[in-house]
Design goal:
single chain, three-stranded antiparallel beta sheet, two-stranded antiparallel ribbon, 28 helices
């Protein structure tokens, strides 16, 4: 009987199999597996899928871009996604608690918390702007339709203004004013009314009270949805993760019925196969995959930690990753069908109206919506979709911070008061976001977006791979996954985790110093893309003037050379292209001052510096003769043991350590359970948390 129990334990379980009591009573679990999948989809599918990918695809060769994009998905996205899900699920701990597997690298978890904090602050500001546009769309005429408002300038030229009653008149006016700066009413509404933009990042000006109110609404919504942790957010995602697809479908059906929609879609999909040889295209594909899936933010580990121990996270990682990428492709049809219609209406090329980032969401696309009948309805649907996409990501960002705090303290008092921890983090996030609602707020928002979560994510992901594969040991980790899932990770994933990432790490380190310090700001190339929002924020007309990416001189030779060594590789590959394409950021005609860029680099370093600082602290405070002894204690999953269960000590199946694990049989369904003894030297032994799963 013991042999059968042991065999069943080592073989794991198929999700849905009756008899497996592998829940975490104190921390809680997802109500069912659908809640986890929907939450992870909502986390991965964010604003970047709608306003960044379609433009990247169009600019990097149309349909030809799909080839490197899906190559990067297979060789980079899914393996890293699977690693983080399995890491969190096996430990049943947040991004801090999991590093009891190798305490010296707990700084990686702190780095993830810093990244999630930065993103959570400015991401909710973007959501609050979407809330603002959603509210002002509830009118008969959209406020950015005409140029007759008090905030408009003489340079404003709207396509529906009375003096432009026909396309011929508009084209004539456009030709006569070709040498003048023309701005659209949607661009002036965005810059002069919504933002009331100041002239410098240091000139904060006054707080924009409408945005501040919407920011409060955003944080209240996030808090209420997370008031009971995953038990409440797991129910909310049934709507927030699925309804955006309903809106996308409605906008898609409406878009493809418009004149010029096919032209826009052809611009989106027509392959330019010569760009396949451009290393920059592969770099954009890799960075989009990496940042879109949310790797190294800590959210994947946190969400997976609430899974049942034997959940098939391998299957989930494939489903969620493919869903994320398919959503990006689908959103491209929605965006470019409307932009094609707008270009057709204006009598210009699609490239003249194509844009991405906030420039697409709050300037170009809203202007296109004014051309549709019942334009307020389509505007309400569009911005409601943006709100839901943003909230899905924001839920996980906040839960990542709360879970890390609660798991780190890990006592009854804080577990029972987790709601107050959530409230405290939400209030702190609101207060830290207030400066971003000032007249200079957009400058600070883009600064955070560009630097706070860019190359630091790649560094964190690299170190995580090395720590798991080479400090804890790949054989141990593979056997842990086999214990959890019933089968070892496929050979493909083993190769990616063990060899590809570590090999590229050395290339990344060697390239990073040359790229960042080598005068990158003098190279007139496309501004590098940020993980969530996209780099440029330009009106649709200025996007037409600046949208063509040109690489000249020294920069061209540097970007062209790597294409001979194009390989589908994990995130270190992204760091190479992030660095060699670097140039200081700008917003329209405004160039950020040196002191602001220095603050940006400090934000980027603040997450990475956690890793060596904590490692030094741990080495100094721990016993052991070697770094391996300090950094790699015993390991074992801790799964809840039902009352009255009969336990038998058995050797740890994945590692020879001084402690024993306990094989228990005695639940009402006769299922085996696994638990480390209280006070054991395993990862949770020092806390004695017998009801937590974990290393």
């Amino acid at each position: 009987m013991a042999d059968k129990c042991s065999e069943g334990l080592l073989n794991g379980a198929v999700p849905g199999e009756r008899g497996k009591q592998d829940k975490s009573v104190k921390r809680g679990n997802w109500g069912n597996q659908i809640e986890f999948v929907l939450t992870s989809v909502g986390y991965a599918v964010g604003l970047g899928n709608v306003w960044r990918f379609p433009y990247l695809c169009y600019r990097n060769g149309g349909g030809a871009f799909m080839f490197p994009y899906f190559i990067m998905l297979v060789f980079c996205g899914i393996p890293l996604f699977f690693m983080e899900l399995s890491f969190g699920q096996f430990a049943s701990q947040g991004c801090l608690g999991v590093w009891r597997v190798s305490p010296m690298f707990k700084g990686v978890g702190y780095g993830m918390m810093v990244v999630s904090t930065y993103i959570g602050i400015y991401y909710n500001v973007v959501i609050c702007i979407a809330f603002y546009y959603f509210f002002v769309s509830m009118t008969r005429v959209l406020p950015w339709t005409y140029c007759s408002n008090t905030w408009n300038t003489p340079d404003c030229a709207g396509v529906l203004d009375g003096n432009l009653s026909s396309r011929t008149a508009f084209n004539l006016t456009r030709l006569l004013n070709a040498t003048q700066k023309r701005t659209s009413p949607s661009e002036e509404y965005w810059r002069r009314y919504v933002l009331d933009l100041s002239d410098d990042i240091g000139n904060l000006g006054e707080v924009r009270l409408p945005l501040l109110g919407c920011l409060g609404v955003s944080w209240v919504v996030v808090f209420l949805c997370l008031i009971k942790g995953v038990k409440s957010s797991g129910k909310v995602v049934y709507f927030t993760a699925t309804f955006p697809y309903v809106v996308l479908t409605i906008l898609f059906v409406r878009g493809i019925t418009l004149d010029g929609a096919l032209t826009g879609i052809m611009y989106y999909l027509t392959p330019q196969w010569d760009k396949i040889l451009d290393a920059k295209v592969w770099g954009d594909a890799a960075s989009q995959i990496f940042y879109s899936l949310g790797c190294a933010w800590g959210g994947l580990i946190t969400m997976a930690s609430y899974n049942k121990f034997h959940n098939n996270c391998y299957r989930d990682s494939i489903i969620i990753s493919i869903t994320n990428c398919a959503t990006s492709v689908y959103a491209g049809f929605v965006i470019f069908s409307i932009l094609g219609f707008m270009a057709n209406h204006l009598g210009v090329d699609v490239s003249k109206v194509a844009d991405h980032g906030p420039g697409l969401a709050f300037v170009a696309y809203p202007e296109a919506l004014t051309l549709l009948p019942i334009s307020p309805l389509w505007s309400i649907l569009f911005f409601f979709m943006l709100i839901l996409l943003g909230l899905g990501t924001q839920f996980c960002l906040l839960e990542t911070l709360v879970t890390a705090i609660v798991d780190e303290v890990a006592n009854e008092w804080i577990i029972r008061r987790k709601t107050f921890v959530t409230l405290g983090v939400a209030i702190a996030g609101f207060l830290l976001g207030v400066p971003l609602t000032t007249q200079a707020g957009i400058y600070w928002l883009l600064l955070m977006d560009n630097y706070a979560a860019s190359f630091s994510l790649v560094v964190i992901s690299c170190i995580m791979c090395v720590a798991i594969m080479y400090i804890y040991g790949h054989r141990n980790y593979f056997k842990d996954i086999e214990m959890m899932l019933g089968f070892p990770p496929p050979l493909f994933f083993q190769i990616c985790w063990r060899f590809i990432s570590p090999a590229i790490i050395f290339v990344s380190i060697a390239t990073m110093g040359h790229g960042v310090m080598g005068g990158g700001g003098k190279e007139p190339t496309w501004t590098p893309h940020s993980p969530t929002l996209g780099r440029r924020v330009l009106g649709c007309r200025r996007a037409a003037e600046m949208g063509q990416s040109r690489v000249t001189g020294r920069a061209q030779s540097r970007l062209a050379a790597p294409h001979r060594l194009i390989l589908p590789v994990p995130p270190q590959f992204i760091l190479v292209f992030t660095v060699i394409q670097y140039r200081p950021i700008s917003y329209n005609d405004y160039v950020y001052p040196t002191w602001a860029i220095s603050i940006g680099f400090l934000m980027a370093l603040s997450s990475v510096i956690c890793i060596p600082i904590y490692a030094i602290y741990k080495v100094c405070r721990s016993e052991g003769d070697t770094l391996l002894e300090v950094g790699s204690p015993g390991l074992g999953p801790l799964v809840h043991v039902p009352p009255g269960a009969a336990c038998k000590a058995v050797p740890h199946p994945t590692r020879a350590v001084s402690t024993s694990q306990w094989l228990c049989a005695g639940s009402t369904r006769g299922a085996p359970h696994l638990q480390a003894p209280l006070g054991a030297a395993g990862m949770l032994g020092e806390a004695g948390a017998g009801e937590h799963g974990g290393y």
